[in-house]
Amino acid sequence: MNGNKEKLVVIGNGMAGISTVEQILKLTSRFDITVFGTEPYPNYNRIMLSYVLEGSKTLDDIVLNDLHWYEDYGITLHTGTTVARIDAETREVVTEDGHRAPYDKIIIATGSNSFILPVPGHDKQGVVGFRDIADCNIMLEAAKAYKKAAVIGGGLLGLEAAKGLVQLGMDVTVVHLMDDLMERQLDPQASAMLKAELERQGIKFKMGAQTSELLGGERVEGIRFADESVLNVDFVVMAVGIKPNIAVARESGIEVNRGIIVDDYMQTSLKDVYSVGECNEHRGVCYGLVAPLFEQGMILAKHICGVETAPYEGSVVSTKLKISGVDVFSTGEFIDSPEHNVISQKDDWKRTYKKILLRDNKMVGAVLFGDITDSAELQKLIKNQTEMTDELYSSLMGTGCGGHKKTTSVETMPVDEIVCGCNGVTKGAIVDVITNQGLTTVDEIKACTGATRSCGGCKPVVEQILQYVLGDNFTAGGKQGICSCTTLGRDEIVAEIREKGLQTSKEVMNVLGWSQPEGCSKCRPAINYYLGMIYPDTHEDEKESRFVNERMNANIQKDGTYTVVPRMYGGVTTPADLKKIADVSVKYDIKAVKVTGGQRLDLIGVKKEDLTKVWAELDMPSGYAYAKSLRTVKTCVGSQFCRFGTQDSMAMGARIERKFERLDLPAKFKYAVNGCPRNCAEACTKDIGIVGNDGGWEIFIGGNGGIKARLADSLCKVKTDDELIELCGAIMQYYRETGNYLERTSEWVERMGLEHIRSVVVDNVEERKALMERIEFALAQVEEPWQKAIRDEEGQSKMFHSIEVTARP
């Protein structure tokens, strides 16, 4: 420790405290910093816990500052250590285990705790809050052993917990006291749309229900409500709210109310002791959201470093929901009353809703559902209580210039405005690193400032700032490689492969100057795909570059077994094939046979050593449920059986599936074929959706029902079956040739532009036929993978009997 430096002790290793430390480090090096954290981890992003719970991220993915960061800045970190009190007389902090650390200044950043309803049975086993990694781990373990869960609380945390548990395979009911979800952030209209969307995703709801007791013995077995009704469950998550963690302040004689009382510079009632974040109470308000946390931290950092700063006067709060496929945002006031002028727009087809509230013609609040691209702009306008004008109205509501909205201008954005709410990065900080450090890519900005490293929602604004600062140099300077191994983008790599005749991934990496000679898990599969797309007849597939599911021709499950999905063309099968599936499932003790959303049968729980035997005895083609390829063609019964059907959707679905199966694509690919406009096969959420009508077929492209939900766009109408097949082939080949690896068609259509795609595959007949010829040539090279694996006895021994595989390459 440096005796010449002031000793700064930070009580709390969460986002508020460490964000403040980051700001202090930018301003001065005069402090010798010691951090105490109760959890056994370095600083991580608590608002990303829902992604850890649903399985899309790990703890490592959400760590904001790893242990090396603390070492690099000379910060002493005590993990797994709770501070009990501050001894003002000796000017020391005292931990629960008796350790003492001297201080000159202290920042209390102890955050908040889950509020557990004080009802009978709240302390039973199987009852947990949702606040930290430990809670996540309990929930992950519970999902392995139990099936029925209840989440008490229909607010932000409760809904995130519910979706995570559904993703883990649990039957989940959200129990909410009020009649509207997220009633503190959403109006009834947005709440109803949110509830409907989450019901589509598998969450059940019990609204207007007051919990009176948790039932069971040592472990929870159910919930009794005030009306005496009972919900049988074996796991309960309490997500009814949070309460500031004021324990250390109270034990130290610091003035507290609901939170730790602070002034406009975060000073507590004890000299040289400050407080920041959710544990605070400022002007009677305790903030439980991330933006105020960073605003307080920036002011505190300047004040504690002796830098002139404006006082903290409170925050205009905003909420953004982080649930897969659901975009919800609100800021400021959101319930309209007679004193408001209301501007609203609702689209049931796109499932979008927008409402802006005005008072005396000034913007004071907004609610967005389904499309939140205007969230950053609205937050700024409402924070400043900007007056509504005709120009602003046209921009925000899409009524001017032919209905097109202008892009949010970053030029007028204040330098101290927070761009990245997850990590508290301002526009000024981003501009500084671009101008002073010569950064030219979003990835460089992310590594330097932390902007975009969490949820990624601020990436478009960061790109706009980059373009604004670099000006004419943006295109060349802002170019990003496909991974950190190279600065080359997808189009450049493909062009170099063609021009130089490169044949293998090793050649590509060597000739094109990869920084890592062996590449990484991001670029290896991409290069293997590009080589196969360019040389379908000569490229030898590099299995080692494939993801594990593709290497094994089956989907690995969390217990190490596999799911096998045989092909059923157009979702149609025969009694003989069904009998084979049943016989094989019984013989090999397959745990479950599940009907998929794509009208196929999952055989879940096949042992690795049984895979080839299961394939052989099924004697059916692979359904490619594991591949970046054509997965399924979903169909309705169409004109063969339905009284409304105008086209034979089952026959067309089977024809399309037989035609295009087994071909590698940039990402997984799904079809739906409907026999009439009633759309029973749900064409609107498929990569290619086809709707029959009296005059032929209508083609839709770019739909997605997954993490980034998107409704498909209407591309064109055709009259004949052959014309439909040709257009589908041309679309798929153009996607194969221009799509980035792992880029779904929903993203590809938005990047390429619908009109551009239409001009290539619909309007240009010669180019369409050329695309069809190229896809026909590629299709001629494909082979049924299960039969190939069955014939390859040596490969069977290596792949299926001698190695252990993991979930990622």
Automatic annotation (TrEMBL):
PROSITE patterns: NIR_SIR. Pfam families: Fer2_BFD (PF04324), NIR_SIR (PF01077), NIR_SIR_ferr (PF03460), Pyr_redox_2 (PF07992), Rubredoxin_C (PF18267). Its cofactor is [2Fe-2S] cluster; [4Fe-4S] cluster; siroheme; FAD. Keywords: 2Fe-2S, 4Fe-4S, FAD, Flavoprotein, Heme, Iron, Iron-sulfur, Metal-binding, Nitrate assimilation, Oxidoreductase. Siroheme binds at C680. [4Fe-4S] cluster binds at C636, C642, C676, C680. Pathway: Nitrogen metabolism; nitrate reduction (assimilation). Residues 418-467, 482-531 form the BFD-like [2Fe-2S]-binding domain. One of its GO terms (biological process) is nitrate assimilation. Residues 627-766 form the Nitrite/sulphite reductase 4Fe-4S domain. Residues 557-619 form the Nitrite/Sulfite reductase ferredoxin-like domain. Residues 7-280 form the FAD/NAD(P)-binding domain. Belongs to the nitrite and sulfite reductase 4Fe-4S domain family. PANTHER family: NITRITE REDUCTASE (NADH) LARGE SUBUNIT. NCBIfam families: nitri_red_nirB. This is Assimilatory nitrite reductase (NAD(P)H) large subunit. The lineage of its organism: Bacteria, Bacillati, Bacillota, Bacilli, Bacillales.
